[in-house]
Write a structure and sequence with these properties.
Length: 291
């Protein structure tokens, strides 16, 4: 007996199911008619609100925290109001300076009255432009100062001795400055100890308390101790309308994007918290004239 032959069953191709096609069509139609239930103006308003919310989120998260810096770099520089004594700080990064222009330059509506100059860093590094800048500052009639960039972990006495050998401050100059910005591998207690060693060494040499330069947050995190409150503070806090530090301060470095005649590119700009007479009274006295 011959076996019955049957034709092989053909499997339907993917996507060819009429039921699935009908379901997809019904779903898209239902979505279409769902939107048709709302007036066009309401849909447009919803789209605008979503877009506005996205723009606001982007601004407050990504733009606003840096808006002061963006304006400083790409727009007109803004200088805090209510202060009459302004100055700058410089190093070899400023390269060639036209001191004839700088001595008559202004920051906002106030003349440049003082200049801090980098002298040394660590135990051996001397700023290449220090001697030239320090001499030119005096010839230009600006009140000048010199600072040491502190390197955590390096011997603080050697750092102090190195600064004293290089920066020969004179009567009429601002007190010596210690620039402390990094913790390094030291604990807060070790860092404070080494800073105090430097300060004591330099104070013994000049007979005045040095100025402490540091950032706003660094001050609160590492130097917020009563033993350091006796020193004049130079606080760096950029792109804010007013200094948030609540303690006593002598100088405020409010931007690293300032523009001053005689200097190409950006320069740090500073404010003195007082009058020009107060600034002059802060300078080193003539020891020979002291009683």
């Amino acid at each position: 007996m011959k076996a019955k032959t049957t034709s092989p069953t053909r499997k339907p191709k993917k996507g060819s199911s009429p039921k699935k096609g009908k379901k997809a069509t019904r779903k898209s139609l239902s979505s279409f008619f769902l939107f048709r239930r709302f007036p066009v103006w309401l849909l447009l308003l919803g789209g605008l609100l979503v877009t506005a919310a996205y723009v606001a989120f982007f601004y407050y998260v990504f733009v606003n925290p840096f808006s002061f810096r963006w304006r400083a770099i790409y727009g007109e520089p803004a200088y805090p109001e209510g202060f009459e004594v302004r100055g700058i700080d410089i190093s070899h990064y400023q390269d060639r300076i036209d001191w004839n222009e700088l001595k008559s330059a202004s920051i906002g509506d106030a003349p440049v009255s003082f200049v801090f100059i980098k002298a040394t860093e660590g135990e051996k590094l001397c700023d290449d432009s220090f001697e030239k800048n320090f001499s030119n500052a005096k010839e230009s009639g600006l009140i000048r100062g010199a600072y040491h960039f502190f390197v955590p972990g390096a011997d603080p006495r050697r750092q102090a001795d190195f600064f004293l050998r290089v920066a020969h401050l004179e009567p009429g100059d601002l007190p010596p400055v210690l620039d402390i910005e990094k913790q390094g591998n030291l604990t807060p207690i070790q860092l404070q100890h080494d800073i105090k060693v430097w300060l004591d060494e330099v104070e013994a040499a000049y007979g005045v308390k040095p100025i402490l330069y540091t950032g706003y947050k660094f001050k609160l995190d590492y130097l917020n101790s009563p033993e350091f409150d006796a020193y004049p503070y130079w606080i760096a806090h950029y792109y804010v309308e007013q200094l948030k530090y609540q303690g006593r301060w002598a100088f405020w470095q409010h931007t690293d994007c300032g523009r001053v005649s005689g200097i190409k590119g950006f320069v740090d700009c500073n404010i003195f918290n007082g009058t020009l007479y107060d600034l002059q009274m802060l300078t080193l006295p003539d020891r020979e004239e002291q009683p």
